[in-house]
Amino acid sequence: MTEPIIRVTNLSTKYGDRFVLRGVNMSVNSGEIMIILGGSGCGKSTLLKHIIRLLHPYSGQIHLFGQDITRMEEHEFEPIQRQMGVLFQNGALINSLTISENVALPLQMHTRLPDDLIWEIVRVKLHLVELDHAYHLFPPELSGGMRKRAALARAIALDPQILFCDEPSAGLDPVTCLEIDQLFLKLNRQLGMTLVVVTHELESIKRIAQKITYLDQGKALFSGAFEDALKSGIPQIDQFFLKSAP
Amino acid sequence: MPQSTALLTLEGEVTLAHVGDLYHQLHHQIQTCTESHITLDAAGITALDSAGAVLIQTLPRLAERHQKMLAIQNIPPPFQEVLEYFAVEAAAPVPPASPPSFLERLGDGVYRAYQSVVQLLVLIVDILWWSVIGIFNRSGARRGAFMEQCILLGSQAFGIVALILFLIGFVTALQSSAQLRQFGATIYVANLLAIGIARELGPLMTAIIVSGRSGSSIAAEIATMKFTEELDALKTMALNPIRFVVVPKFLAMTLCIPLLTVFANIMGIAGGFLVGITYLDLSAAAFGNQVLEALLLKDVLTGLIKSVSFAWVITIVAVYRGFNFKGGAEGVGIATTSSVVTSIFMIIVVDSFWGILFYFG
Ligand SMILES: Nc1ncnc2c1ncn2[C@@H]1O[C@H](COP(=O)(O)OP(=O)(O)O)[C@@H](O)[C@H]1O
Ligand SMILES: [Mg+2]
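Above: query sequence and magnesium ion SMILES. Below: predicted holo structure tokens.
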């Protein structure tokens, strides 16, 4: 078997004195969709932030593309960083730039494409998230859901190999949520993009999940194929899928 | 006519990393080829992403700009799908944002100035109304909010006001003694200082310091509350934001700034006193008597009236800027800065007004 694109080994971390993650293991192969789920405050965002190297672990290793990013200098990490897109929980658009400028930003900073191509790409990406009309608007002029979609357009501006999303559908209506899931599936199937998505939405999980990692109080109770999770008989997971099922 | 058709090929990875080079290369080839019809053979593509798709779709338009026709053929079927997915044509064309004309901007400016004045007046009336109500009826504000604000305000400004006024008193006494000494009238340093500080420098400097220290934080706090929708939350709980948030601050300012001013006056005179008894060799008793003789109750009172008016200016400007906050987190910074700049300006305008009134009055 080939080396997984993301491999988290025995990851532990703490804020102050309190351990937030305790020996988490997880691996994602290229082209898979991994869902991270668990109760709020169980450390999902924290795990994600470690994988994208915003936080440094207390112990354990994280391999991206086969390289251990916990033992890397900043300049060594940069090329890897360009292969990843991140959708933050709150969008994190730059408020002083228009939506189109936000999406164009990574293209302008990290590629040497001619301008007209950049703006065409921006137009296409905004069309994918159905924000054609928001081209000249500023982030504060959009609703929360629109901001999130704009942030998604920015996250996929560079066609990253791995896309990380922190609660992409939180606070969105079911229709938009469905559209975003379809977008995820298209990106996954047509471009072979690997996705790591934190979400609670049961519908969403059923639609897109190939693998799941279930976090509970900083421990990964389960990490593996979605079907196996349903058969695993772990009480918390059963409860999650039964309770939230109608 | 097959002779007039040029054949170009596109092969390999047509992805973000290579699209820039491919674009320039193809652009050059399209420009330099002599035939008017170009066929692009895409059979050799091994990878295609959104940037590549956009490249392929912009090529015909690029060719058109050079009066040539470009047709693309043999795109491998899996990539055909990618191409359709990232269709440029489907995306609505972007209308350019046209800048408004001079007249439009002028009209807009006048209209906005008018609106600001109306808003400001409404705000002032609101604040005064709810403050008067607030004095008699505490139910609309959190209990202890007024004391909290007083303590906060006092502790923020106390030290810095003391230090600055002491230094100002010190320096003013030194400067004036240099002049008065020529007439052998150094004792009048005490008069000059007492009146200057009580009437002008005490209230003015205190107000400027407080506007920088506390006015700015009021503007920032209200702007942040607006940004995080706290103000809306208050309204939905049937709490009036003016009454709940602004009135305690307004009343605290109205009480604390005059108190700070009295204290500032004392510190200023103490600064002069130090110069008097050391550098000018005046006796402590002589200096003290001179100060008391020179200082009329009227001087102190006009100073205090001024300081109340400054307190109102600072609070109203800060609250106005806070409520008028726009945009994201950076708007908070803008609201804060503009609140300080505006209130210092307004303080000096109001001070001049009082100056004229008391001088002729
Ligand atoms: N910057 C921080 N400092 C201290 N504790 C934090 C910080 N960020 C998160 N935490 C704590 O870590 C735990 C996990 O947080 P997080 O990963 O954001 O949870 P979630 O699974 O809801 O995304 C929570 O209990 C939270 O209180
Ligand atoms: Mg979170």
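The domain at 5-85 of chain B is CATH 3.30.750.24 (Transcription Regulator spoIIAA).
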